[in-house]
Amino acid sequence: MISVRVSEKTRQAVARRARASGRTESAVVREAIENYVERDATEAPYEALRSLVGIVRDGPSDLSERSGVRVRSLLLARRSGRK
Description:
The chain contains 4 helices and no strands.
């Protein structure tokens, strides 16, 4: 048996999730703990996000290099009412 104290905000979130799924709060907490424990603790952050990271082959190639110039021009355009 394990007892865990959580904030009121977390308790309410667990209660909402339990009601929405038709399960008990204990079942929701058990599932969350099992998912946490099953996760590979040694997994690098990149590995966790691998499916979300990719290469975009469209658009300007210098977006990160010239972001200040782009932001400045957008702000000046907005100021002059041109958007």
